[in-house]
What does this fold into?
Amino acid sequence: MSDLVDYQLDGKVATISMRNGKVNAMSPDHIAAIDAALDRAEQDQAVVMIVGQPGIFSAGFDLKVFQADAAAGVEMVKAGSTLCRRLLAFPTPVLGVCTGHAIAQGCFLLMACDVRIGVDGPFQLGLNEVQIGMTMHHFGVELPRARLNPSYFQSAIATARMFSPAEALSAGILDKIVAADQLMEAVQSEAQRLAGLNMAAHLATKLKMRAGLLDILDEAIEKDYQEQRSLLA
It folds into this structure.
């Protein structure tokens, strides 16, 4: 589909494979490519699998964009948050396939998926913003507040705690972990189960469950955007 993502449709399952360099840095172009792939999946009325590369799901936003152009960085953050918000309300189930490390925006993307299956191994998952000197944005507080198990929320956000796959399972970042040689079998089985759902009922139920969260995230995205733009003035 592009150099940044690969789109494959197999029956009722669309696989979106991220292919942006060694760490799947979420640049503006990469986010746009994922969005375009989601457009295609929506047209195909397919269950979506979002898959990383061996050893890496995504290491987060492309930090070079922040360094080169602050205004472009503000737009990138808004686009990344909006992408996650889209996944939370996507008309078909979204399965996140965590193939390794998932950090910062990569972890947000994973948390926005309906089902998250990860590979076991020496990987880190979490939100390192505070560790690298970034104050967490409003969206970055509210999405984990809804998705993480409460006992892990404070340490994940305020102290930038990173998690092994097993710890990520307990924290609520992942729903299941499997050995590397069992990953694709596990995710294909789960994708087929999801494809058997009544999609109208799935969407109506998902929107009912997440109505309050979606409102909160819409407000957070706008607040982040206005606050970050004001710092540029």
Residues 139 and 217 are 6 Å apart (CA to CA). The beta strands are 5-10, 13-18, 47-51, 55-58, 94-98, 100-103, 115-119, 125-126, 162-163, 176-178. The first strand starts at residue 5 and ends at 10.
